[in-house]
Amino acid sequence: MSAAAAAEPQAAAAIAARGVSKAFGGVQALRSASFAASGGEVHALVGENGAGKSTLIKILGGRIPADAGSILLDGRPVRFGGTAEAARHGVGTVFQELTLLPWMSVAENLLLGREPRSALGLIRRSALAPEAEAVLAGLGIHHIDPRALAAEVSLAERQIIEIARVVIRRPRILLLDEPTSSLVEREVEWLFARIRDLRSAGTAIVFTSHRWNEITSIADRITIFRNGAEVGTYTAIDEGEAITLMTGRRVEALYPKLPPVPADAPPALKLAQASLDGAGINGAGIDGAGALSFSLAAGEILGIGGLAGQGHRELFLGLFGAPPLKQGKISVGGRPTRIAHPADAIRAGLGIALVPEDRKSEGLLLPLSVRDNLTLPILGRLSQFGVIRGAVERRMSRDIISRLAIVTPGPAQPVGTLSGGNQQKVLVGRWLLAESRILLLYDVTRGVDVATKHEIYELMARLAGEGRAILFYSSDTEELAHLCHRVLVLRGGRIAAELAPPALDAEAIVAAAMREADEAHAG
Amino acid sequence: MPAEMSGRAEVRASVAARRPRAAHIIGQNIGLVLAAAILLLSIIVFVAMFLIQQHRLPGNFEITSTVDNTMPLALAAIGQTIVVLTRGIDLSVGGVVDLTNALAAIYLAGSFTHMIVVAILVILVGAAAGLVNGLLVGLGRLQPIVVTLATLSIFQGLAIRVLPQPGGTVPDGVTAFLVNTNGPYALLFLALAALGWMALRRSRIGVAIFAVGNDEQAAIAHGVNAVRTKVIAYTIGGAMYALAGLFLAANATSGDATSGNVFTLTSIVATVLGGVSLFGGRGSALGSICGAFITTMIVNILFYAHINPLYQSFYEGLFLIIAVVLGAAIGGLVRRGRA
User: What confidence score (pLDDT) does residue A4 get?
Assistant: First the structure.
């Protein structure tokens, strides 16, 4: 560990925050935090969710004002009235929550405020798409149609457009808040190639990520944040040390020991001859009509793995009836069950938790309280003559909050103000209250910090130990390998491989998932 | 989501092939396309009924009166559209039309220069009314529906104060200039308004209006001044309602401080028929102009179908629901086809 860098003179810094504080309501997001990044360096900002990284980036990018403290550009104090003013000072920001305008075209989004204009000063709408096309091509992006609406392109493509629209404005200081969370490896490589170009051109680049290998592969310096303030700035630090500094405690073993599945465990969920929809390999579509069958036992954690677009999401949503599977027989607890609507699934004892792709569209009702979100599916059971029994509702939600260790000032707190990990716990808690015997957990740890991941893992092991059946999809293959009794690797809507210990490890999952993709490439 | 491929430094084509340009243009303007189609359909039905009953095609008189009767609504609908595009709504349209109509009826008479000055002042009064709405919505961060419901009453009250009884006179010159009964010359003004819309669409403020209606927070993150945008949108809206008030006065050749009330609802109807999303950020004033003409055509059709005028609003409502349901269904099919 080399903490020497922390004492570097700040006058040379391209951008610096000095003693910055910011509170949202009663939550102190930043406590007199300081930070500095120089031109020509890539500076990673790491910390748990809620450590204040995003808040700092929003303040540096002019999105929100600080309550106290100062921002310095090249040592001179500045005060931004908005992102436009920050942009005029050469600060460009890609915010964590995507900011594309959904019903405007990719080209309009990309060129907003710098559209091609005619002699009369009017925008030449016909020139928008060609110019956007040229600009994207200059960045090595050829696959995004500039005429498409932003709402029509995939999440990863939206993220790339967000990055492109900032990069083409040639900022002197580039702030990237979790730019890679929705990108696949190939796209991350593209981004890092751009970052390296900008670095050699003297740009100061600040970025945040929860993926440690990305941080070590690109960052020149790392600043660790905890509880709204910096812990220190390092040029070399290993992951274990960093986690200790981020969490303030040691995370001994990330993955808990799984309770074994009893040999006589009854099947909780059976799926036979199901068809899935999906993009398939290279957009070729899925042909495995009626090819998917599996059985999930009580107390088992069954992992579902594979490349993106193989129908995982459709499977999870389908089992929950949102919308139902096109084809396939579902039986729950041995009884054939028709699931045409989420209400059927809830009645059958199924619960689903997933991280929606854009983080706010599915699952939780963010402006509503933790309590309302927890008791939503069981309001019928909680009510007498149509009136909710408040005392029972309060008792039940308090009980879940303490059982799952949800960090919230109280049950009345709006869910939207909680950290991502705690929002996930509320989702899981909802289905525990609904007495779901089968939990469908879809990528519940994405974008969640290490300590919260650890808590979610332990919760999963405990729930399996209680005899609940868990179907688990994760984009993180390490997680699948360590947290599942069995893993089914999907490919083209079929089961490409069924892996169980000792053959179950991350490499085996990736190998099974990639085999056909490689074949497709070769052909 | 694109299928993951083995590592490449460049992001390569992954998902579906690109759609042709025409498919984008139609798909992204489906509201406008549908509005034009419904307008065409209603014109065909009208002409057919006219032909059956009058044994001739509609002539200069029918066309001119249709255009003249639609002009105030078309102008008001353009204003409403600009407000709706910011994800707002303006219920004060009726009040502004009342007020400007009353002012025009009282003060327009005089020399030519006098008329020009008064007309401009009337438009400025409309713009000022819109400015009040815009400031309350933008700076005051109040709900548009509440603000404009309140200002509707206020402007209606002012109109009654200005012109307690129907009356006043609009000089023949004005009537002849704005709504020349010898031919559908008012279409010229409509073309000017359409050109104005197209210029707005291609200006910085036009882009800002669409951006704010798409996602206000995202627009702010893009450096758009959302408050200023809303203030300007409501102000332009107010000026358009004033133009509607002027045309209404010219049509009637006198003023009535309550004759504008209907425009609150009809301007929203025309906007919806025009395919403009009430959730903001999507649509075109060209669609709303079509929407305004559709409502007039429906009235014309009902007239020639000998529907009892008492039931007219019943059928108007019915047609509105059918049109909106059809529009939503076709729009949904198009979107699914594109997905």
Answer: 43
Q: Best of A97, A118, A122 to disrupt the B interface by mutation (most B CBs within 10 Å)?
A: A122
Q: What is the ipTM of this complex?
A: 0.86
| Contact at CB, A148 and B24, closer than 8 angstroms | yes
Residues A522 and A446 in one domain: yes
Under an 8 A CB cutoff, do B220 and A82 touch?
Answer: yes
Residue B134 included in any domain: yes
Percentage of chain B exceeding pLDDT 90: 63
Angle among Cα B219, B222, B226 to the nearest 5 degrees reads: 40
Task: Name the pTM for this structure.
Answer: 0.77
Structure confidence at residue A360 as a pLDDT band (50, 70, 90): low
Domain boundary among A170, A191, A211: A170
Please give the residue range of the domain that contains residue A22.
7-90+171-247
3-state secondary structure of A70: strand
Gap from B215 CA to chain A (nearest CA, Å): 6
Best CA proximity match to A433, nearest among A472, A502, A378: A378
Task: Indicate which of B6, B11, B30, B32 best probes the interface with A, i.e. most A CBs within 10 Å of its own CB.
Answer: B11
- Count of pairs with CB atoms under 8 A, one residue in A, one in B: 150
The dihedral sign for the CA sequence B265, B267, B270, B274: negative
Mean pLDDT of chain B: 88
If one counts every other C-beta atom within 10 angstroms of the C-beta of residue A39, the result is 17
d(CA A422, CA B154): 49
Which residue in the set B1, B13, B19 is minimally distant from A279, CB to CB? B1
| Residue A359 reports pLDDT greater than 60 | no
- Integer CA distances (angstroms), A468 to A298, A301, A319, A333, A471, in order: 5, 9, 16, 12, 10
Give the gap in angstroms from C-alpha A337 to the nearest C-alpha of chain B.
Answer: 29
Tens-place pLDDT, residues B39-66: 999 999 999 999 998 899 998 888 999 9
- CB-nearest to B222 from A112, A141, A514 is A112
pLDDT of residue A415: 80
Establish if A105 touches chain B: CB-CB under 8 angstroms.
yes
Q: Would an 8 Å CB–CB cutoff place A458 in contact with chain B? A: no
Question: Is B274 among the domain residues?
Answer: yes
